[in-house]
Design a protein that fits this description.
Blueprint (H helix, E strand, L loop, with lengths): L2 E5 L3 H13 L3 E5 L5 H8 L3 E5 L4 H13 L7 E7 L3 H10 L3 E5 L3 H19 L1
Parallel strand pairs: 1-2, 1-3, 3-4, 4-5
Helix pairs in contact: 1-5, 2-3
Length: 127
């Protein structure tokens, strides 16, 4: 069982994603405010962070930088959840420091596959 930190201001998307991941056997820690993401990451030591991209985008980038700057969390894999994503957006999001991007609205079966692949990639990178 992996611990996943899911931070998303959109409550309905967050709750459905959490339920999907819990049914797949993951422990899901939820947060609704990006400013809480660094503290939640420190407290719960997740294997993966899923973070909704919010406007202003600077809030998402601030949370990303805080998590990547701390010695206890800098190796965490951070994946963005974003609406209306174009190929150029994914390039920019990866350049900012995110490890991946999943477009919303979420297909919950695809979310489960995406998370499983991200966790496999994380584990392979550590060995």
């Amino acid at each position: 069982m992996s611990t996943i930190l899911l931070v998303d201001a959109q409550a309905s998307r967050r709750k459905l994603a959490a339920m999907t991941l819990q049914q797949a056997g993951h422990r899901v820690v939820q947060g609704s405010r990006l400013r809480d993401a660094p503290e939640l990451a420190l407290r719960h030591a997740p294997e993966l962070v899923l973070m909704g991209l919010e406007h202003p985008l600077a809030d998402s980038l601030w949370a990303l930088r805080c998590i990547k700057a701390h010695p206890a969390t800098f190796e965490l894999r951070l994946h963005a959840l974003g609406a209306r994503v174009r190929a150029v957006d994914e390039v920019c999001i990866r350049a900012a420091g995110f490890d991946g991007l999943m477009a919303t609205p979420l297909d919950y079966r695809a979310l489960q596959r995406y998370v499983d692949a991200a966790l496999r990639t994380r584990h392979a990178a550590r060995h």
